[in-house]
Amino acid sequence: MLARFVAEFVPESAVNVYTLVSHGGATYWAPKATVGEAAVRDEAIASDSGLLGRLLEEPSPIVRSGPALKREDYAHVDVRRTLRSLCCVPLAKDDTLLGAIEILSFDEALAEDSVAALLPAARLGAAAIAAAQSYEEERNGTLASITRITQLYDLEKVFSSTLEMEELLPLIGSKFSEILGAQAVNIWLLRPDETIELMHQAGEDHTAFHGQVLKPKEGIAGAVSDNGEGICISDPADARLVQRNTAAAGAGEVVVHTLLATPIMDRNALVGVVEVVNKADGTTFGEDDLFALTSLSDTASTALHNASLLMAERKVEILETLNAVSHEITSTLNMERMLLTVVNAPQAIIPYDRAALALEHHGRFKLSAVTGFARVDPGSPELAPLNEVLQWASLSAEIVHVRQHDDEIDADREETRAKFRKYFGESGMRGFYAMPLNDDTGRVGVLCLESKDPDFLTAAHIEILQVLSSQATVALRNAQMYKEVPFISVLEPVLVRKRKFMAMEKRRRALIIAGVVAALIFLVAFPLPLRVEGDAVVAPLREAQIQPETDGVVSKVFVKEGEIVRAGQLVAEMEDWNAQTAVAEAQSRYQSALLQMNHSLETGDGTAAGVQRVQADYWKAEVTRDQEMLAKSQLRSPIDGAIATPHVEDFAGRRLGRGDSFAEVVDTSSAIVDVAADDEDAGLLQVGQPASVKLNSYPLRTFHGQVAIVSPKAENVQNAPVFYSRVSIPNPGGAIRTGMEGRGKVSVGWRPAGYVLFRGLLLWAYSKLWYWFGW
User: Fold this and answer.
1) Spatial distance between the Cα atoms of 432 and 659, rounded to a whole number of angstroms
2) Which residue ranges form the domains of the chain, and what is each CATH number?
3) Pairing of strands 39-40, 77-78
4) Which helix (H) or strand (E) holds 18?
5) Mean of the per-residue pLDDT values for the chain?
């Protein structure tokens, strides 16, 4: 408006209006309006440019005409006509320069009285611009406050989305940097010894490094952790920044010239310290930024505290699991069982894909155990590459740790890189860790772990592995010694008991012999029922998934969890507006085509009637197809049963894709109970045998049924193979529910009492005899 007014006041002229802007420590002219045949090339013009620069020195109207007019006075303006006069009128309010009016006259030179006549308009324009800028600043401040509140709300949701410390710290760093416009964000967390450690760094700050540890009162972060008060340093000459920048400045790195630091508190307890280093736009931090950082830290403190609790809980779980694994390794002297335990049990706490163990025997190493293999054949195609590389690793007295990232093999020697490039290509692994098992008497063997993740072992995993390897070494050595003298522990107590028996009175010996004979007769001649017992789990006899055949949003749900439904019963409807519209449109076009066909027949136009007949047949097919699509929007139960999906009624309003699971229907008319039988009992199971089941949910009831299926394949449960006998049990009342657990017994017939009572011992003795003599 101001530019148009001046252009009308001064005929044959072009007018530019500028505002004076200060940003990032720099001042420049910003063109805001142009009227006439002149164009301003740049969006920001240097404050000392041309005639505009003179206004900063003397804010009064300046006019240049004739020979006094130089091209440098208006270098920032593109004009195509001969310029007669150039005038700059300041826009000032209360002695504060806000902008300028630039008048380019092409017809004649501007007279001083014309310029003086424009001054009242310039004063009014300056007042209007000042008011507009004030209103804009107030509005921007309000918008900034709303944005800050929205960001805090979003941060709470983002930070609450994970409890994983490795995921949470990058989230906090990136969000803090984004909101505060920082060059770098350092997150320090408190350690048990009251020191703080730099756990995450977002951006570039060469004055600190990941893993750096500070004591209380040491450095800026240490001082904040000690007194619990946030600080804002905006002066680059501050002694604390000078001390921090000394090393980085000597190395030619970017130094810190402004910094924010505030403690992360949770219920008056220190969690850590967050530092925000340098503004990305080059300005300095202020108290408003410190207040914002304090608010952000309060938002992040709860998430960090919860993540710390999760880490502590996981450490307790790891220690408990480590104790259980250690106990399992050292609890047996059976070499085969121990070998399987050593290569399988550590998977509970160490994330490897495969472990292998080679035992030393007379100076040579033999592949003795591999994860997932009950019997090991070193010459098999699957294990031959592993056996070869393990034999190579056994030659080293040190730990062998080789990793592959992309095409790079992390190894010192070219021979090692070539060997493992071939091995990793054949096996698909990317990480290999082999450690010798040594004790005071020499080498026991070599234990190796492999994974498809090259970085599967952390420092904590390696520490755990060292503890386990030490225990495994002792246990393996004891098992080897026990295996070499297998009868010592058996014969010695037998001889002791024999001497005690012969020292008894003759009558007492006779009574004992008679009792033994009677017991033998009982054990051999008296029959007892033999039962195979095992853990029982209820599985549904039949289950089915209710899945939509088209994409859409569930509009209505007619069932709830546990409700009994029949096959074909409507359980839910999906939004079908498009399908209904398509049906209506197809029917309308079908009726229209019939009417036109009938009209053509009445008028005797057979050709048109034929065309309309084809159209009618097409739209009739479309009606049928659209009705089928409409029917697919209704979800129906495929079988009789009960709805097993929790909170299925909450699916209303949820979008489902084709093939997504809406609900699960379980047939409760009868139940299948899986009774787990040990490997040595699997040969006794047959279809049709009676069985009884006692479930934990019904401790006073016993359910009876028959074996319907005996699983043809074993499954590993706690590193031991089990076979499932699937017992069919009537369930008319629906008392038995899927997932219930208990114990089951399968009656496999009558056997002598001795066989029933001591079957396990007899089988163990027979297996040992077979192992020794090969019957």
Assistant:
1) 41
2) 2-137 (3.30.450.40), 161-313 (3.30.450.40), 332-484 (3.30.450.40), 490-525 (no CATH), 526-575+633-775 (2.40.30.170)
3) antiparallel
4) strand 13-23
5) 83
Give me 347's structure tokens: 């998977």
Tens digit of each residue's pLDDT (9 = 90 or more) over 368-395? 999 988 888 888 888 899 999 999 988 8
Q: How far apart, in whole angstroms, are the C-alpha atoms of residue 145 and residue 138?
A: 11
**How many Å apart are CA 276 and CA 285, to the nearest integer?**
9
Structure-token match 């029982």, residue found: 536
Residues 6+ apart with CB under 8 A from 612: 593, 594, 596, 597, 600
- In this structure, what DSSP letter does residue 373 have? B
Q: Which of 18-32, 218-232, 460-474, 629-643 has the lowest mean pLDDT?
A: 629-643
Place of tokens 């994983």: 164
pLDDT at res. 148: 65
Q: Which two tokens stand for residue 356?
A: 């292998």
Say how many C-beta atoms besides its own lie within 10 A of residue 89's C-beta.
26
CA 197 to mean position of chain CA atoms: 24
Could you tell me where the DSSP H helices lie in 228-370?
239-250, 287-330, 335-344
Report CA 248 to chain centroid distance, whole Å. 36
Q: Cβ–Cβ contacts within 10 Å for residue 773, how many?
A: 7
pLDDT in tens, 548-587: 877 778 788 888 887 888 887 888 887 766 666 776 777 7
Strand 715-717 versus strand 431-439 pairing type: unpaired
Q: Characterize the bridge pairing of strands 259-266 and 408-410.
A: unpaired
Q: What is the mean pLDDT of residues 27-48?
A: 87
The reported pLDDT for the residue numbered 587 is 78
Quick check: 755 and 762 in contact, CB under 8 A?
yes
Question: Mean pLDDT throughout 756-771?
Answer: 79
Does 155 score more than 70 pLDDT? no
pLDDT digits (tens, 9 = 90+) for 407-443: 888 888 888 889 999 999 988 999 999 999 988 888 8
Residue 604's CB is within 10 A of a number of other CB atoms, namely 8
Check residue 412 and give left, alpha or beta (phi > 0: left; psi -120 to 50: alpha).
alpha
**Amino acid symbol at 31:** P
Give the percent of the chain with pLDDT over 90: 15
CA distance from start to end of the chain: 111
- Rounded to whole angstroms, the Cα distance separating 369 from 355 reads 8
For residue 369, report the phi and psi dihedrals to the nearest 5 degrees: -155, 140
3-state secondary structure of 556: strand
> Which pLDDT belongs to residue 251?
45
Least confident of 17-31, 101-115, 524-538, 611-625: 611-625
| Amino acid 90: pLDDT | 92
Residues 5, 455: Cα–Cα separation, whole Å: 72
Whose tokens are 């509009």? That residue is: 555
The CA-atom distances, in angstroms, between 596 and each of 252, 605, 606 are 88, 11, 12
**Structural element, H or E, at residue 543:** strand 527-546
> Has residue 654 got a pLDDT over 90?
no
β-strand partners of 724: 676
Spatial separation of the C-alpha atoms in residues 241 and 559, rounded to whole Å: 67
Rg (Cα) of the chain, in Å, rounded? Answer: 44
- Read off the tokens for 727: 């017992």
CB 449 within 8 A of CB 458: no
Task: Report the distance separating Cα 150 and Cα 139, nearest Å.
Answer: 16
Contact 630, 514 (CB under 8 A): no
Here the tokens at position 202 are 């977002």
- Measure the CA–CA gap between 32 and 405, rounded to whole angstroms: 56
**Amino acid symbol at 484:** E
